[in-house]
Write a structure and sequence with these properties.
With about 140 residues, this protein is of the alpha/beta class. The chain has a domain at about 60-70 and about 80-130: Methylglyoxal synthase-like domain (Rossmann fold), CATH 3.40.50.1380. The protein contains six helices and five strands. It has helices at about 10-20, 25, 35-45, 60-70, 90-100, 110-120, and strands at about 1-5, 30-35, 50, 75-80, 105. Helix 1 (about 10-20) crosses helix 3 (about 35-45). The longest helix has 13 residues, at about 90-100. The radius of gyration is 14 Å and the shape is globular. It starts with a strand and ends in a 16-residue tail after the last helix.
C-alpha cells in the first residue's frame, strides 16, 4: 500500500511519534511524505520514505497529483486547525482529492489510530479495488 505522511508544523511531533509507535506496520508499506515531515520521521524511525517538497513549496500538490493518478492509497495528514496556513488552498485541494478518489484520510490522532487498526487487520485490501473509475463511477 502507498501511504502519504503530512503534518503541519505544530503537529509534526504527533505524527512522528505515531509513525514510530507503528513502525513495524509502516515498514511493510511504501511511504511518501512532504519534505520536512519525511526527513524528521526518517531521523526518528528506521523507515525508507520518498520525500517530496515541503508543503508550502508544493509538496501537498505533489501528493495530490499522486492521488489524482490513483497512485496513493491512504493519507495521514495531521493538520493544525488553530493556525492559519499560507498554503491553505493547497491543503483544501488535497482534502478534496481524497474525497473525490475515496482515499482514506486521517487528519488527527483519533482517526489515524482507527485507520491503523484497519491496516493491521487487512481491511484496506478490499477497498483498493473499489476506487472511482475515470468516468466518476
Amino acid at each position: 500500500m502507498k501511504i502519504a505522511l503530512i503534518a503541519h508544523d505544530k503537529k509534526k511531533e504527533d505524527l512522528i511519534e505515531f509513525v514510530a509507535a507503528h513502525q513495524a506496520v509502516f515498514a511493510s508499506h511504501e511511504l511518501f511524505a512532504t519534505g520536512t515531515t519525511g526527513r524528521r520521521i526518517m531521523e526518528r524511525a528506521d523507515l525508507s520514505i520518498h520525500c517530496f517538497q515541503s508543503g508550502p513549496l508544493g509538496g501537498d500538490q505533489e501528493i495530490g497529483a499522486c492521488i489524482a493518478r490513483k497512485e496513493m492509497d491512504l493519507v495521514f495528514f495531521f493538520r493544525d486547525p488553530l493556525t492559519a496556513q499560507p498554503h491553505e488552498p493547497d491543503v483544501s485541494a488535497l482534502v478534496r482529492l481524497c474525497d473525490v478518489y475515496a482515499i482514506p484520510l486521517a487528519t488527527n490522532i483519533g482517526t489515524a489510530t482507527v485507520l491503523m487498526k484497519g491496516i493491521e487487520r487487512g481491511d484496506f485490501d478490499s477497498v483498493q479495488g473499489k476506487r472511482l473509475t475515470d468516468d466518476g463511477q
